Input
Amino acid sequence: MEKYIDIIKNSYAGYWNYLKQELLFQNHWDNYFYGLIAISLIVWGLEIVFPWRKNQSIFRKDFWLDTFYMFFNFFLLNLIVLIALSNTVAQFFDDLLGVVGISIGSFQLFDVDDLPKWLGLLVFFIVSDFVQWNTHRLLHRVDFLWNFHKVHHSVKQMGFAAHLRYHWMEPVVYKSLLYIPMAIIGGFDAQDVAIVYFFSIAIGHLNHANLGWSYGPLKYVFNNPKMHIWHHSKELPVSYGVNFGLTLSLWDYMFKTNYIPHDGRDIELGFEGDEKFPENFIQQELYPLRKD
Output
């Protein structure tokens, strides 16, 4: 037990020091704090210059709520619980395997450090995106998880910051299901992985932005605003949803979960019963605990 307490304490101290370095710009090109701000301002600027829904306000409905979510989920959530929880659960899992004489290293198929850097990053990107695509499907198919995912689907007007409006339980689910696949692949250099994360953030922001882009033939590879808006549609052909891609649309086309029946610029967004869904941060976070 003492070991786990030390892990929790060290996680808090380590992430606090990391966050201070981010804010003071002691981390440079892989600085997630200012990187997120830069990407957000660029995509917001694109929304302003090339608006798809021209009657939608620049400061759309829930703009400031989504902006708060963006920084809370990307930084404060890690400080409050996620890093300590992730590190503790990872150690607990390793200890559990150790009881039966298995180490997490025994799962490793190869080490990306043995591959050319570009290939290692590509493998990391494709594997993690495929696992997240499947996780996203689970968030829609399992009622317990859908209650948490409703926070993200409560968005009524799409904009870049809606990308990071989600309940704090979602990254717990994503990280848990990613743990084994990432262990199988092997270790990654943090600065190299930053390239993948920044790319994923940019695509995620664009997917939710007020932009009418589909990227031409690349729409079959990368998720895009014209595809993703149908994922948020209130009326869908199947109750559990469509277009589950995060960065890649490829999986939806491969597994026949793609759906773009027509231009979705003016479709109603949300989910059945969303008129009763709370509109403020605290009530949205508490929503899954309600007993209706």
Summary: Residues 63-99 form the longest helix (37 residues). The mean pLDDT is 86.
